[in-house]
């Protein structure tokens, strides 16, 4: 780093800076000039110097170096410019994977099956040995929904060939070929912004406004009261209410002639405000899906990849048969979904179907996670973070509440959204990047190399900022 | 190349092999073994050795080297392992772009605006100076549709803020927040396979079957009779009929309470069978869109990038104001869409919004296209190809018909689909890769470095194959 030669020297060994270094408020003058010159970049926070960014620290074009506890909306698994990933790019054996992007569904590279085994299949969720890669999170969920629809109709047809009427009516978007099937989703959910995904997203109006949608059932997601140990009975009742209403909706939509082919849910509603539910809730929900012949799709786009302390958040439920489909993207670097054998994917297709160069990176990321025991680190850092948040909400009772989390996948509520937004800006100007979610929450989404000492550093700065708002 | 040291030596200079070299039928034994071992790869043609592939030649794992006239479903712009692209990967200045994928909508790299100017904006369609990158073709069209819906409703609201009812109803997928708007598409069209795109795709039943859809209007696309010069009057009548029905559908859907917010069309229907229409048809259609307040979206995902002899196929229409939105992917290496200033994209967002490393490649591709005058080459090769196809359909009148094309973006019909498929396999075993499209067409989709001598070589082999089917 040009500005901090000492830190750079240290980073040679540890591949991380030793702290933030702020030159200006953010966005700084240089970021602002670049933005003013451009009409093709709309919602930019600031411009980044990714060459100088390293480990947990994101450097901007004004030379500000910030501890990144948001990591590109939770999509940087092992920090910036990790040496293992840089090495991969410079390896001449990998050049061809970057330069020749194949139509993966028909003409895969020779090593693709091995690389799948080494990467995605080595972390396959319980009960699943098949995976389909995709280019992004939205495409992953869109195609997962299609797999559920196709499976549902295949069963209805008794696995026989589609009728002439099926084949002709579908060409003009009509039933029975394009059947009136539905996906059940939950209020507060976020599953992406393409038209199919958006019909199951219910986090913010601005995401959905003005876009045509489907008449699909939307169940309530439990609103838990915190601290959990004080509201055991109330929360159990709340979860029971939501499960009951879910089952009612499945029956109602079947009666309406729009049967529920699948249920989609996040293990923790992220964009919608870091809303948690108990393992018991998910276990019972999975049983309801099975009972009513609905496929059960767990969307791990934001929760997957290790930040809850397990590789998949749904592993915390402790089930052998947690889902029929698990979708992913973000920290996995490639989109895609795992599925059970029954959900035959032979009709899921597009030109690229992912990008094999991303699988190469994922192999290295998984190697680093294993070699450095990063899931244990996350559990340790997460415990320190959540305990720190508990302490802060006691210290600032009018300001903070509902500290919650799994691993470092944590959040806390602020008294109102305006104050939340001010706290985010003040914290950023002190060299720490955080993100908001839901109405008035702050979400913590560090990478997996976020250590206990990063937690303590963050808590100190956060404490200083909160004191200003007391 | 291990097998052909002489050819490899030549390729040092010309970066291309001097012809196919077949060791086995395709898929060869090694491809078959790899496929049998794997249940995660479904519709594979064969496995590839991308390291050994070069220029116009794709090499498979059995050492077969094939002249590629299909190029990964038309997505390889300047051949395999082009030296300019290899150099880019080995440039240390670019490493960070591969390793640190940003959330481009909020935290772009410093050079992103410049790279956009140098790449996508340097080839912006007439009347457009804004572009939004996306990860793939389907996402590009999905988000283009959203931009059209948002623009339509913004106009309806008189650009005032949405009502409370808008904001609450959209959260549960209901009007007025999620309005009953539609996109008009054409029979035979292909715009992608996610749920929004799929509602405008009408090429093959197997793409659409079992997936819920929208009640959106579908207009007839002209079915031209060939040779064009013999059916001038009939084809003009056919186009007039289609335009009239399009206008009727717009009125009808408005009356149904599902106004058409946008019209989407390919300049040449590719997947649907390489269906062409005249410039006059498109000019009149664009006027109908403007007259009825529908945005006009030209989908150049397959036609864009130079293979018609112009960078965009719609340039053949000769209009100053050809469209409101132009989407792209495939040969552009990144997905995305251009749009006019009026279609404000501030609400189009997702985590990745493309991949800046793909823009770096695109800069180099455009440099090569300019430096080597590849659009002129395409026009030259295309002329030779189309003339050759004309000659062959005269020679094999019972077998071939309807030779058609622009640049190298050519196609020809075979008497029936079974014969078409057999011809594709035979041609492949003789070292040339082609693709099918529509009911009984063969489509030609070489890269931009496909020269006249490649055309002549192809025509000779194709002639030999056709003679077997006479």
UniProtKB/TrEMBL annotation, chains A, B:
Pfam family, one: Aminotran_3
Cofactor requirement: pyridoxal 5'-phosphate
A GO term, aspect molecular function: (S)-3-amino-2-methylpropionate transaminase activity
Record's keyword annotation contains Glycoprotein: no
Domain of life assignment: Eukaryota
Listed EC numbers: 2.6.1.19, 2.6.1.22
Biological processes, Gene Ontology terms: gamma-aminobutyric acid catabolic process
Catalytic activity: 4-aminobutanoate + 2-oxoglutarate = succinate semialdehyde + L-glutamate; (S)-3-amino-2-methylpropanoate + 2-oxoglutarate = 2-methyl-3-oxopropanoate + L-glutamate
GO terms for cellular component: mitochondrion
Signal peptide segment: none
Record-linked InterPro entries: 4NH2But_aminotransferase_euk (IPR004631), Aminotrans_3 (IPR005814), Aminotrans_3_PPA_site (IPR049704), PyrdxlP-dep_Trfase (IPR015424), PyrdxlP-dep_Trfase_major (IPR015421), PyrdxlP-dep_Trfase_small (IPR015422)
Enzyme class: transferase
Key word Transferase present: yes
Keywords attached to this entry: Aminotransferase, Neurotransmitter degradation, Pyridoxal phosphate, Transferase
CDD domains listed in its UniProt record: OAT_like
Subunit note: Homodimer; disulfide-linked.
Family: Belongs to the class-III pyridoxal-phosphate-dependent aminotransferase family.
Role: Catalyzes the conversion of gamma-aminobutyrate and L-beta-aminoisobutyrate to succinate semialdehyde and methylmalonate semialdehyde, respectively. Can also convert delta-aminovalerate and beta-alanine.
Identification of the protein by name: 4-aminobutyrate aminotransferase, mitochondrial
Organism annotation: Gouania willdenowi (Blunt-snouted clingfish)
Protein encoded by which gene: abat
């Amino acid at each position: 780093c040009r500005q901090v030669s000492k830190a750079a020297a240290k980073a040679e060994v540890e591949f991380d800076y030793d702290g933030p270094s702020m030159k200006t408020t953010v966005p700084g003058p240089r970021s602002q000039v670049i933005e003013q010159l451009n009409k093709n970049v709309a919602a930019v926070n600031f411009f980044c110097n990714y060459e100088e960014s390293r480990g947990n620290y994101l450097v901007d074009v004004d030379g500000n170096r910030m501890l990144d506890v948001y990591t590109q909306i939770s999509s940087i698994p092992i920090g910036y410019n990790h040496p293992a990933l840089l090495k991969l790019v410079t390896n001449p054996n990998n050049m061809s994977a970057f330069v020749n992007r194949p139509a993966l569904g028909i003409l895969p590279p020779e090593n693709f099956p091995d690389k799948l085994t080494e990467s995605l299949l080595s972390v396959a969720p319980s009960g699943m040995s098949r995976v389909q890669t995709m280019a992004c999170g939205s495409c992953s969920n869109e195609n997962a929904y299609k797999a559920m629809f196709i499976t549902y109709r295949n069963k209805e047809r008794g696995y026989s060939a589609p009728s002439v009427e099926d084949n002709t009516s579908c060409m003009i978007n009509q039933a029975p070929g394009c059947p009136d099937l539905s996906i059940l989703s939950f209020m507060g959910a976020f599953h992406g912004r393409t038209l199919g995904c958006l019909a199951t997203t219910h986090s913010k109006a601005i995401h959905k406004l003005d876009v045509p949608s489907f008449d699909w059932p939307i169940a309530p997601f439990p609103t838990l009261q915190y601290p959990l140990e004080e509201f055991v009975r109330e929360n159990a009742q709340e979860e029971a209410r939501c499960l009951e209403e879910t089952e009612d909706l499945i029956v109602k939509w079947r009666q309406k002639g729009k049967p529920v082919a699948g249920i989609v849910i996040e293990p923790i509603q992220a964009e919608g405000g870091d809303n948690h539910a108990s393992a018991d809730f998910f276990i019972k929900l999975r049983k309801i899906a099975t009972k009513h012949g609905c496929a059960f799709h767990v969307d791990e786009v934001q929760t997957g990849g290790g930040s809850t302390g397990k590789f998949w958040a749904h592993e915390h439920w402790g089930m052998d048969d947690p889902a029929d489909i698990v979708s992913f993207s973000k920290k996995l670097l490639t989109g895609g979904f795992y599925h059970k054998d029954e959900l035959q994917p032979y009709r899921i297709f597009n030109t690229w179907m992912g990008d094999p160069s991303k699988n190469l990176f994922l192999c290295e990321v998984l190697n680093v996670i294993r070699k450095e025991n990063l899931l244990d680190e996350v559990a340790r850092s997460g415990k320190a973070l959540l305990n720190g948040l508990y302490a802060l909400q006691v210290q600032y009772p009018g300001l903070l509440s509902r500290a919650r989390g799994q691993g470092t996948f944590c959040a806390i509520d602020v008294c109102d959204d305006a104050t939340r937004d001010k706290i985010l800006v003040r914290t950023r100007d002190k060299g720490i990047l955080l993100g908001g979610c839901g109405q008035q929450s702050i979400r913590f989404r560090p990478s997996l190399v976020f250590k206990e000492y990063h937690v303590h550093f963050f808590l100190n700065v956060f404490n200083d900022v909160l004191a200003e708002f007391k």
